[in-house]
Structures are given as structure tokens and as C-alpha cells.
């Protein structure tokens, strides 16, 4: 299992710059489309800072990609067979949120990711994260609180939630032990 924090940080930085350049966008263009400041984007591209999950989701959304799609492009993967040992893992430097990309291919409509959310942590993702996808969360271990729009859902092991229309979503682990869940999403 490869933890995406060291040399992968450089690959993420290069991929963000490549995606921006391929579209002919300036830093200001990407900042406007993503809601991430020009200074932050510049620091990420120069490898002076590691992006958080929220920032990566915003940047991916601006490129009309999912987070998995952006990370996959950075890693250069995309095989049909996804061996456990080769599934990339990325840790959010702010929350300790650990994302293992179980399956993702540019030519396949489904993506599967396994997330471990540490005790007492939360991640808030903007509505733009869900603009072009449909998503299901399936809790494997622990308890996960999902605040979706005005609704609060408490999911235990084995519980599954399909998301509604795009809205800001908060994933929270309000317990004292880690929570593990699967994210299954389809593009379209």
C-alpha cells in the first residue's frame, strides 16, 4: 500500500498545474472556479504546502473531475484489476482522514474508495463536490454522522445512505474510535 504523501504530493502538484495549463487557465481562473485562493493554489503547485481533502475536492470539481479522478490522474493508474497492495492511499494533513482508492478508471462509471475517519474529526465538502456524481456511503466499522443539507443521518456498521441532490455535506465521527466506510459513486 502506497501512502500518497511524499513523492505523490509532487505528482499531485504537477497534475494540478497540468490540468490548469491544459485548459489555458490562469491561477485566477482556477481560483474563481474552485473557490480556492490563488496563493494557496500557487503554494500547492510549488509544493510548498500539502492540500487538504476539502481543497483537493474543490480543485477536482473545478476541473470537472472527482477527487478519485484527480488522484488517479496524479498516480497514472487505471488498470482493470485493482490489487490491494497497489491501491493508493492518501492522508488529509489537516484531519488525518485516510482515503484508499479501491477502484477507479477513467473509462468506468463507478469508483470505490475506503475512508477511515479518525475519532472526533469531521470533513465538510461543498455542494460542487457532488454536481456530476451519484454517491452511496456504506459504513463498515464504527459510527458516522452525515449532515446533508438540513438532514442529519447517524449511520452504524452495515448502514448505507444514498445521497440526494447536491448540497454541502459534513462527514463527522463523533465517537472515540475510528470509523471506516466505503464510498461508491457513479459519474453522470
Short description:
The protein has 188 residues and is an alpha+beta fold.
Detailed description of the structure:
With 188 residues, the chain is of the alpha+beta class. Helix content is 27%, strand content 30%. It contains five helices and ten strands, in the order αααααββββββββββ. The chain has helices at residues 7-22, 27-34, 38-45, 53-62, 67-75; strands at 89-91, 98-103, 110-117, 122-125, 133-141, 144-148, 151-155, 160-162, 169-172, 179-187. It has a six-stranded antiparallel sheet, with no helix packed on it. It is globular and about 45 Å long. The relative contact order is 0.15.
User: Share of helix among residues?
Assistant: 25-40%
Helix-strand sequence: HHHHHEEEEEEEEEE
Number of helices: 5
- What is the average per-residue confidence, as pLDDT, rounded to a whole number? 87
Query: How much beta, percentage-wise?
Result: 25-35%
Largest sheet: 6 strands, antiparallel
Present the secondary structure layout.
Layout: H1 7-22, H2 27-34, H3 38-45, H4 53-62, H5 67-75, E1 89-91, E2 98-103, E3 110-117, E4 122-125, E5 133-141, E6 144-148, E7 151-155, E8 160-162, E9 169-172, E10 179-187
Antiparallel strand pairs: 1-2, 2-3, 3-10, 4-9, 5-8, 5-10, 6-7, 6-9
Helix pairs in contact: 1-5, 2-4
Amino acid at each position: 500500500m502506497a501512502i500518497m504523501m511524499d513523492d505523490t504530493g509532487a505528482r499531485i502538484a504537477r497534475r494540478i498545474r497540468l490540468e490548469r495549463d491544459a485548459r489555458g487557465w490562469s491561477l485566477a481562473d482556477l481560483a474563481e472556479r474552485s473557490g480556492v485562493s490563488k496563493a494557496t493554489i500557487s503554494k500547492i503547485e510549488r509544493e510548498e504546502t500539502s492540500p487538504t481533502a476539502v481543497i483537493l475536492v474543490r480543485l477536482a470539481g473545478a476541473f470537472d473531475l472527482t477527487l478519485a479522478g484527480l488522484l488517479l490522474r496524479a498516480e497514472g493508474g487505471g488498470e482493470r484489476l485493482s490489487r490491494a497492495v497497489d491501491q493508493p492511499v492518501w492522508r488529509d494533513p489537516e484531519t488525518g482522514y485516510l482515503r484508499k482508492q479501491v477502484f477507479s478508471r477513467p473509462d468506468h462509471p463507478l469508483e470505490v474508495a475506503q475512508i477511515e475517519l479518525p475519532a472526533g474529526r469531521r470533513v465538510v465538502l461543498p455542494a460542487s463536490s457532488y454536481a456530476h456524481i451519484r454517491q452511496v456511503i456504506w459504513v463498515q466499522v464504527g459510527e458516522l454522522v452525515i449532515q446533508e443539507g438540513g438532514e442529519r443521518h447517524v449511520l452504524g456498521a452495515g448502514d448505507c445512505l444514498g445521497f440526494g441532490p447536491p448540497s454541502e455535506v459534513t462527514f463527522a465521527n463523533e465517537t472515540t474510535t475510528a470509523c471506516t466506510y466505503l464510498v461508491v459513486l457513479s459519474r453522470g
